[in-house]
Lipoprotein (Flavobacterium gillisiae), 127 residues
Amino acid sequence: MKNLKLLILIIGLTVTSCSNDNGTSQEQEAQNLEKMHAEILSLAVSKQCENPADWTFTPIGSKACGGPTEFIAYSLKLNTTDFLYKVDKYTNSQKEFNNKWGIISTCDVPPSPISIKCVNSKAQLVY
């Protein structure tokens, strides 16, 4: 009987530690974040860089101890309202994920770019 209670306790802890109230696991949420990130990166490189003046950059992501995970360049010829909404949604989702799952990260701050240059029709951040 004692072993049965211990087994039930272990199974209960395992189930609750792997999912949240919505029934999603940490791995599922991480995959959803990766899909969001991939979509944003795909949009960011969807235009060719011919004139750096047509481009800008934005921070994206959220490190566990604060600040962005990186900066990305994007074309001003995109629907910038929609693009920045996706970036903001991803950043906030990553912050919530970090808090919810107790994620830790390095506390270094990525350098902020100072400009953009076009190299082989691709935007490149200049630091």
Summary: The radius of gyration is 20 Å.
